Each structure stands twice: as structure tokens, then as C-alpha cells.
Amino acid sequence: MPTLSAEALTAFARSLFEAAGVPADEADVVARSLVDANLCGHDSHGLIRIPQYLKAVRDGLLRPGAPFTVVRETPAVLTADGNWGLGQVQAHRLLRRLVPKVQQAGLAAGTLRQCGHIGRLGEYAEAAAAERLAFVATVNNHGFGRAVAPPGGVEGRIGTNPLCLGAPTAGDPVILDIGTSVCAEGKVRVAFNKGQRLSEGWILDNRGRPTTDPADFYAEPRGTILPLGGQQAYKEFGLGLLLDMFAAGLSAGPCSRPELPLRVANAVLFVVLDVEQFAGAEHFLRETTDLAAAVRNCPRAEGVAEITLPGDPERRERARRRAAGIPLDDGTWGQLTAVAQGLHVPVPAG
Known about the structure:
Elements: E1 3-4, H1 6-19, H2 24-39, H3 50-58, E2 69-73, E3 77-85, H4 87-105, E4 107-116, H5 122-130, E5 133-140, E6 162-167, E7 174-179, H6 185-194, E8 203-204, E9 210-211, H7 215-218, E10 224-225, H8 234-251, E11 265-274, H9 281-296, H10 312-324, E12 326-327, H11 330-343
Parallel strand pairs: 3-4
Antiparallel strand pairs: 1-12, 2-3, 4-11, 5-6, 5-11, 6-7, 8-9, 8-10
Helix pairs in contact: 1-2
């Protein structure tokens, strides 16, 4: 299993995208985003996605260099069309367009339709928190949402529709980035690539039976990923259902539909808040900082070394992998080297 530095992998990823016809500036944005996901320990949203993205480019489903088109705009709302551009590129364009709006109006919301997969939502929450902005976001799979079945169902009807919340503090921000399913589809793909079994309670086969074999999820007809909370998680499925409706309904993209084809895409909803224009930044930061400290300092049960907050694991893993390198499983590395050979891109030594 090769282990490479973040710098080497970023350069490698950038070269792959450029060789596939992606403009250099866009290749850099996507490469950095994917490698940062690996750094944070979210391999499901990292370099494993490159073969998917490049296949979509090759098939004409993603369009490098696509414009960012404003469909409708008010002082606090922006509805945009990504024109099937690369997701991270268009999502960062959306966030940059929202920042001056939120600084003027106090609150701003933006949506994207016809946009490639935008990666890890926590990335955008971190960017917003750096501006002392609070952040709320979700996406759906732009109509292809067949990973999660309703409780009692055996066919997927919605995606793993994530919810991301970010709050700045006087120190590190608190960033919650979760799927509304037990796991992200990418985590099933990582296990599939590694030839490993999944944890019990993650997926069902296409007859609604529990299984730990990731191949059962990708068989035809497909298996499903359980809602967060398990087979009878009506509340958690309901949360994912409503997020699907918000992401699609507000962006003019499609809600999940059984008949739509697979596409590596998202319909996107970002909501950004300027804490200064509510109760004031001083109050917000004091309260969030004090609460974060109180949670960390909570008396611990026997055998518990420390209490962590959302965002802590990503920061720690990022620091560890920056120092030790990023490990890539043999399945993912084999896919990347095959792509590199096809594009005549040198492969870095692991």
C-alpha cells in the first residue's frame, strides 16, 4: 500500500486532470480539494474520485472550463447553473459570490444545479469559518439518489444527502459534516477497493437482508445503505428526504428519481450567516468558544482519554498525514496508475 506526501499527490492529481484537458487553474482547485479530503482521513472523498471524474469528462458528462451562470439574483439570494462544470470549481465560485452578499445583508443563500460532485462539504465550512461566517449546506445527487431505501423498503429512493454545519470560535471552528446514512457511498467504495468487509449495520443487499460484503451494494439490482440510525431510523431517513427536497427544489435541479441515470453530480444549497450582524461577533465567538471548552472539559467516564468536538478528528488526521504521508489502498492506487498510463502521466514513486 503506497504512502506519498500531500505535495506529490497534489502534483500527480493536477497532472492527471490537465492531461485530460482540464484548465490548469481548475485542475489545481480539484486536486487540492481531493488531496485535502485524504489528508483529513476522508478517503471516500479523496483521490478515489479521480477515475470517476475523468470518466465523466471523457463521456462528456462533465465540462472542464464550463462557465458559472447566474440564473437569478437578489441582494441575499443567488441561484446559479454550473453548466456541468467540475464541482469543486463551481462550488467555490458560489461561495465566493455569497461572501459579499452576506457581509452586506447578514445572511445569504445560494444554490447550484448541473454541477459535478463538489467533494467534502466541510471544506466549504472551513473556508466560511475563516471569514468568521457560520455555514449550513447540503447536496443531493442531482436526481441519482438510489443509495438509501426508506425503512421497510428494498430499493434506494434517496441519496446519502449530507448535512454540514460550521460555527467559528475564537480558536478552531466547530464543523459537523455528516451523511444522513450510516456511511457515505464512498466509504463502501473504499472497502470494495480494499477487498474488505464492511461493519455490520451499514448496508443491505437487494432483497433487504443485512450484509457486510460491499460487492452486494454494487450488484444489479443494487443493494442499499441504511439510514443513519439503522433499519428503523424513520427520523434520520426523514432528515435525508427533506434535505433532498431542499437541495433540488431550491436549485431547480431534480429530486432523487428511480429512473434517472447515474451521474457524478450534485445539486447544492449553501446558507451563510454573518454573526456580526445578528447578536454581534463578540457575543457569538465568546459563547461558542466557552461552550466548546465546556464540552472538552466535561468529566470523563473511566477509560476515556479525552472528549473531542466535530472537526477535531479531521484537523488531527491532517496534521498526522502531512507528517507521515497519505496511504492509498492498492485498489485505488491501481486505478490511478491505470489512468496515468492511459494519459501518459508519470506516476510518483510510493
